[in-house]
Amino acid sequence: MARVNFYSGAGLDRADHLRLDEAWLAAQLRRSTTRYVVIWRARNFVVSASDPRPAWLDWSRAEALWAQAEHVTFLGLNGQHAYVALDLSAVDRPAEAAGLSELGEFQDLRLVGPLMARGEGAVLAYARGLVHWHKRHRFCGRCGHPTESRRAGHLRHCTNPDCGLDHFPRTDPAVIMLIHDGGDRCVLGRQKGWPSGMHSTLAGFVEPGESLEEAVAREVEEEVGLKLALAKITYHSSQPWPFPSSIMLGFHAQAAYGPLKVCEEELDTAAWFTRDQLKASPEDERFKLPRRDSIAWRLIEDWLAEG
Q: For residue 2, what pLDDT band results from cuts at 50, 70 and 90?
Protein backbone atom coordinates (compact mmCIF):
# COMPACT_ATOMS: atom_id res chain seq x y z
CA MET A 1 0.00 0.00 0.00
CA ALA A 2 1.17 3.55 -0.73
CA ARG A 3 0.51 4.99 2.72
CA VAL A 4 2.50 4.15 5.83
CA ASN A 5 0.64 2.90 8.91
CA PHE A 6 1.22 4.53 12.28
CA TYR A 7 4.33 3.34 14.18
CA SER A 8 6.09 2.23 10.99
CA GLY A 9 8.38 4.29 8.78
CA ALA A 10 10.92 5.29 11.44
CA GLY A 11 13.43 6.05 8.70
CA LEU A 12 16.38 4.69 10.67
CA ASP A 13 19.39 2.85 9.37
CA ARG A 14 19.53 0.16 12.05
CA ALA A 15 23.25 -0.33 11.29
CA ASP A 16 23.42 -3.97 12.33
CA HIS A 17 27.02 -4.18 11.10
CA LEU A 18 28.06 -1.59 13.70
CA ARG A 19 26.42 -3.11 16.77
CA LEU A 20 29.56 -5.10 17.64
CA ASP A 21 31.92 -2.12 17.22
CA GLU A 22 32.22 -1.11 20.87
CA ALA A 23 34.57 1.81 20.21
CA TRP A 24 32.22 3.26 17.59
CA LEU A 25 29.21 2.79 19.87
CA ALA A 26 30.96 4.44 22.82
CA ALA A 27 31.75 7.46 20.66
CA GLN A 28 28.15 7.68 19.38
CA LEU A 29 26.70 7.58 22.87
CA ARG A 30 28.60 10.72 23.84
CA ARG A 31 28.11 12.77 20.69
CA SER A 32 26.20 16.04 21.10
CA THR A 33 23.94 15.10 18.19
CA THR A 34 22.84 11.76 19.65
CA ARG A 35 19.16 11.66 20.60
CA TYR A 36 18.17 9.66 23.67
CA VAL A 37 14.67 8.19 23.61
CA VAL A 38 13.63 7.89 27.24
CA ILE A 39 11.18 5.20 28.42
CA TRP A 40 9.68 4.88 31.89
CA ARG A 41 7.41 1.96 32.73
CA ALA A 42 6.06 1.66 29.16
CA ARG A 43 5.61 5.43 28.84
CA ASN A 44 7.47 7.63 26.40
CA PHE A 45 9.02 11.00 27.22
CA VAL A 46 7.30 13.74 25.18
CA VAL A 47 7.16 17.53 25.38
CA SER A 48 3.57 17.39 26.68
CA ALA A 49 0.21 15.79 25.98
CA SER A 50 -0.92 19.02 24.33
CA ASP A 51 2.30 19.27 22.31
CA PRO A 52 3.07 15.61 21.55
CA ARG A 53 6.59 15.73 20.18
CA PRO A 54 9.44 13.52 21.37
CA ALA A 55 11.47 15.19 24.10
CA TRP A 56 14.88 13.97 22.96
CA LEU A 57 17.72 14.11 25.47
CA ASP A 58 21.28 14.86 24.45
CA TRP A 59 24.35 13.46 26.18
CA SER A 60 24.62 16.42 28.57
CA ARG A 61 21.29 15.32 30.12
CA ALA A 62 21.57 11.58 29.56
CA GLU A 63 24.96 11.26 31.25
CA ALA A 64 23.48 12.05 34.66
CA LEU A 65 20.88 9.31 34.18
CA TRP A 66 23.19 6.66 32.78
CA ALA A 67 23.87 4.84 36.05
CA GLN A 68 20.15 4.61 36.80
CA ALA A 69 19.15 3.14 33.45
CA GLU A 70 18.04 -0.49 33.37
CA HIS A 71 18.80 -0.85 29.68
CA VAL A 72 20.57 1.21 27.04
CA THR A 73 19.89 0.17 23.44
CA PHE A 74 21.23 1.60 20.20
CA LEU A 75 18.32 2.06 17.79
CA GLY A 76 19.92 3.34 14.61
CA LEU A 77 21.06 6.32 12.56
CA ASN A 78 19.28 9.06 10.67
CA GLY A 79 21.45 11.75 9.14
CA GLN A 80 23.67 13.27 11.81
CA HIS A 81 21.69 11.71 14.64
CA ALA A 82 22.18 8.40 16.40
CA TYR A 83 19.12 7.24 18.37
CA VAL A 84 19.48 5.43 21.70
CA ALA A 85 16.77 4.06 24.00
CA LEU A 86 17.25 4.76 27.72
CA ASP A 87 15.05 2.80 30.13
CA LEU A 88 14.51 4.64 33.44
CA SER A 89 11.86 2.30 34.81
CA ALA A 90 13.91 1.64 37.96
CA VAL A 91 13.70 5.33 38.94
CA ASP A 92 10.68 6.16 41.11
CA ARG A 93 10.33 9.79 39.99
CA PRO A 94 12.28 10.20 36.77
CA ALA A 95 10.69 13.54 35.90
CA GLU A 96 12.48 15.02 38.91
CA ALA A 97 15.85 13.64 37.82
CA ALA A 98 18.38 15.72 35.87
CA GLY A 99 15.84 18.43 35.22
CA LEU A 100 13.58 16.24 33.08
CA SER A 101 10.44 18.02 34.28
CA GLU A 102 11.68 21.14 32.50
CA LEU A 103 11.76 19.28 29.20
CA GLY A 104 8.62 17.16 29.13
CA GLU A 105 6.51 14.45 30.70
CA PHE A 106 5.92 10.71 30.38
CA GLN A 107 2.84 9.75 28.37
CA ASP A 108 1.25 6.58 27.03
CA LEU A 109 2.21 6.48 23.36
CA ARG A 110 -1.26 5.24 22.45
CA LEU A 111 -2.64 8.60 23.61
CA VAL A 112 -0.15 10.91 21.92
CA GLY A 113 1.19 8.82 19.02
CA PRO A 114 -1.67 9.61 16.62
CA LEU A 115 -0.83 13.32 16.92
CA MET A 116 2.87 12.93 16.10
CA ALA A 117 4.69 12.92 12.81
CA ARG A 118 4.69 9.31 11.62
CA GLY A 119 8.48 8.92 11.74
CA GLU A 120 8.77 10.30 15.26
CA GLY A 121 5.99 8.08 16.58
CA ALA A 122 7.65 5.10 14.91
CA VAL A 123 10.96 5.76 16.68
CA LEU A 124 9.21 5.95 20.05
CA ALA A 125 7.29 2.74 19.31
CA TYR A 126 10.50 0.96 18.30
CA ALA A 127 12.18 2.00 21.56
CA ARG A 128 9.15 0.96 23.61
CA GLY A 129 9.08 -2.47 21.99
CA LEU A 130 12.76 -3.18 22.64
CA VAL A 131 12.54 -2.06 26.26
CA HIS A 132 9.58 -4.40 26.79
CA TRP A 133 11.53 -7.30 25.25
CA HIS A 134 14.50 -6.70 27.58
CA LYS A 135 12.23 -6.76 30.62
CA ARG A 136 10.61 -10.05 29.56
CA HIS A 137 13.88 -11.86 28.81
CA ARG A 138 16.03 -11.28 31.88
CA PHE A 139 16.31 -15.04 32.34
CA CYS A 140 17.07 -17.77 29.87
CA GLY A 141 14.04 -19.71 28.68
CA ARG A 142 16.12 -22.88 28.33
CA CYS A 143 18.05 -23.09 31.63
CA GLY A 144 16.65 -20.26 33.80
CA HIS A 145 19.96 -18.45 34.38
CA PRO A 146 20.22 -14.64 34.05
CA THR A 147 20.83 -13.16 30.62
CA GLU A 148 22.87 -10.07 29.76
CA SER A 149 22.45 -7.50 27.04
CA ARG A 150 24.84 -7.65 24.11
CA ARG A 151 25.12 -6.42 20.52
CA ALA A 152 24.12 -2.86 21.48
CA GLY A 153 20.93 -4.12 23.11
CA HIS A 154 19.74 -6.36 20.25
CA LEU A 155 20.68 -9.67 21.83
CA ARG A 156 20.49 -11.19 25.29
CA HIS A 157 23.05 -13.87 26.10
CA CYS A 158 22.60 -16.58 28.71
CA THR A 159 25.34 -16.25 31.33
CA ASN A 160 25.34 -19.96 32.12
CA PRO A 161 28.53 -21.27 30.46
CA ASP A 162 26.91 -24.67 30.01
CA CYS A 163 24.06 -23.08 28.05
CA GLY A 164 25.14 -19.79 26.42
CA LEU A 165 21.93 -19.49 24.41
CA ASP A 166 21.47 -16.24 22.48
CA HIS A 167 18.01 -14.65 22.62
CA PHE A 168 16.99 -12.19 19.91
CA PRO A 169 14.14 -9.65 20.04
CA ARG A 170 10.78 -11.27 19.41
CA THR A 171 7.52 -9.91 18.07
CA ASP A 172 4.23 -11.82 18.06
CA PRO A 173 2.50 -12.13 14.66
CA ALA A 174 -1.22 -11.41 14.75
CA VAL A 175 -3.67 -11.32 11.86
CA ILE A 176 -6.33 -8.63 11.70
CA MET A 177 -9.01 -8.69 9.03
CA LEU A 178 -11.98 -6.83 7.69
CA ILE A 179 -14.55 -9.38 6.54
CA HIS A 180 -16.98 -8.16 3.85
CA ASP A 181 -19.57 -9.79 1.61
CA GLY A 182 -18.23 -8.41 -1.66
CA GLY A 183 -20.88 -5.71 -1.53
CA ASP A 184 -21.80 -3.06 1.04
CA ARG A 185 -21.65 -5.08 4.25
CA CYS A 186 -18.79 -5.91 6.60
CA VAL A 187 -18.40 -7.59 10.00
CA LEU A 188 -17.34 -5.70 13.11
CA GLY A 189 -17.26 -6.93 16.68
CA ARG A 190 -16.44 -5.74 20.15
CA GLN A 191 -14.80 -7.25 23.21
CA LYS A 192 -16.14 -6.79 26.72
CA GLY A 193 -13.19 -4.78 28.01
CA TRP A 194 -13.24 -2.17 25.24
CA PRO A 195 -14.43 1.42 25.68
CA SER A 196 -18.19 1.80 25.47
CA GLY A 197 -19.47 1.61 21.92
CA MET A 198 -16.19 0.75 20.26
CA HIS A 199 -16.35 -1.77 17.42
CA SER A 200 -13.46 -3.09 15.39
CA THR A 201 -12.29 -5.72 12.94
CA LEU A 202 -11.65 -9.31 13.96
CA ALA A 203 -8.12 -10.31 14.98
CA GLY A 204 -6.09 -13.07 16.58
CA PHE A 205 -2.61 -14.49 17.00
CA VAL A 206 -1.03 -16.81 14.48
CA GLU A 207 -0.61 -20.32 15.85
CA PRO A 208 2.34 -22.64 15.18
CA GLY A 209 2.11 -24.59 11.96
CA GLU A 210 -0.35 -22.38 10.08
CA SER A 211 0.01 -19.86 7.28
CA LEU A 212 -1.25 -16.31 7.67
CA GLU A 213 -4.24 -17.07 5.43
CA GLU A 214 -5.06 -20.14 7.48
CA ALA A 215 -4.88 -18.04 10.65
CA VAL A 216 -7.34 -15.54 9.15
CA ALA A 217 -9.78 -18.30 8.19
CA ARG A 218 -9.50 -20.06 11.55
CA GLU A 219 -10.00 -16.91 13.63
CA VAL A 220 -13.03 -15.81 11.61
CA GLU A 221 -14.69 -19.21 11.91
CA GLU A 222 -13.91 -19.39 15.64
CA GLU A 223 -15.17 -15.89 16.43
CA VAL A 224 -18.23 -15.47 14.18
CA GLY A 225 -18.81 -18.85 12.49
CA LEU A 226 -18.15 -17.73 8.91
CA LYS A 227 -16.18 -19.99 6.58
CA LEU A 228 -13.61 -18.37 4.30
CA ALA A 229 -12.03 -19.66 1.12
CA LEU A 230 -8.30 -18.97 1.25
CA ALA A 231 -8.49 -17.56 -2.29
CA LYS A 232 -10.81 -14.80 -0.99
CA ILE A 233 -8.26 -13.54 1.56
CA THR A 234 -6.16 -10.60 0.35
CA TYR A 235 -3.18 -9.06 2.12
CA HIS A 236 -3.53 -5.33 2.84
CA SER A 237 -0.61 -4.03 4.94
CA SER A 238 1.16 -4.51 8.27
CA GLN A 239 1.76 -2.43 11.38
CA PRO A 240 4.18 -2.66 14.30
CA TRP A 241 2.06 -2.65 17.45
CA PRO A 242 4.37 -2.60 20.49
CA PHE A 243 1.49 -2.62 23.00
CA PRO A 244 3.24 -4.67 24.10
CA SER A 245 4.90 -6.75 21.34
CA SER A 246 2.93 -7.54 18.19
CA ILE A 247 3.18 -7.13 14.44
CA MET A 248 -0.31 -6.76 13.00
CA LEU A 249 -0.77 -8.37 9.58
CA GLY A 250 -3.80 -6.84 7.89
CA PHE A 251 -6.16 -8.50 5.42
CA HIS A 252 -9.41 -7.95 3.57
CA ALA A 253 -11.44 -11.14 3.12
CA GLN A 254 -14.75 -11.96 1.46
CA ALA A 255 -17.35 -14.24 3.01
CA ALA A 256 -20.89 -15.14 2.02
CA TYR A 257 -23.44 -12.98 3.82
CA GLY A 258 -25.25 -14.96 6.50
CA PRO A 259 -26.04 -15.15 10.20
CA LEU A 260 -23.14 -14.89 12.62
CA LYS A 261 -22.45 -17.40 15.37
CA VAL A 262 -20.64 -15.24 17.93
CA CYS A 263 -18.17 -16.94 20.26
CA GLU A 264 -18.99 -15.43 23.65
CA GLU A 265 -15.55 -16.33 25.00
CA GLU A 266 -13.95 -14.13 22.33
CA LEU A 267 -16.47 -11.36 21.69
CA ASP A 268 -19.25 -9.50 23.45
CA THR A 269 -21.09 -8.85 20.19
CA ALA A 270 -20.55 -8.95 16.42
CA ALA A 271 -22.75 -7.96 13.50
CA TRP A 272 -22.87 -7.02 9.83
CA PHE A 273 -22.77 -3.28 9.15
CA THR A 274 -23.33 -1.39 5.91
CA ARG A 275 -21.07 1.29 4.48
CA ASP A 276 -23.79 3.87 5.11
CA GLN A 277 -24.03 2.86 8.77
CA LEU A 278 -20.28 3.21 9.26
CA LYS A 279 -20.12 6.53 7.41
CA ALA A 280 -22.86 7.81 9.74
CA SER A 281 -21.11 6.55 12.88
CA PRO A 282 -21.97 8.83 15.82
CA GLU A 283 -18.54 8.16 17.36
CA ASP A 284 -19.90 8.15 20.88
CA GLU A 285 -20.72 5.60 23.58
CA ARG A 286 -23.45 4.11 21.39
CA PHE A 287 -21.12 3.29 18.49
CA LYS A 288 -17.60 4.24 17.54
CA LEU A 289 -14.94 2.96 15.16
CA PRO A 290 -11.45 1.86 16.26
CA ARG A 291 -8.54 4.12 17.12
CA ARG A 292 -7.29 6.28 14.25
CA ASP A 293 -3.70 5.09 14.75
CA SER A 294 -4.67 1.42 14.39
CA ILE A 295 -4.49 -0.73 11.31
CA ALA A 296 -8.09 -1.72 12.08
CA TRP A 297 -9.15 1.83 11.24
CA ARG A 298 -7.06 1.73 8.08
CA LEU A 299 -8.70 -1.53 6.94
CA ILE A 300 -12.15 -0.02 7.45
CA GLU A 301 -11.24 3.34 5.91
CA ASP A 302 -9.89 1.79 2.73
CA TRP A 303 -12.89 -0.52 2.37
CA LEU A 304 -15.27 2.42 2.77
CA ALA A 305 -13.42 4.29 0.05
CA GLU A 306 -14.03 1.43 -2.40
CA GLY A 307 -17.81 1.80 -2.26
A: low
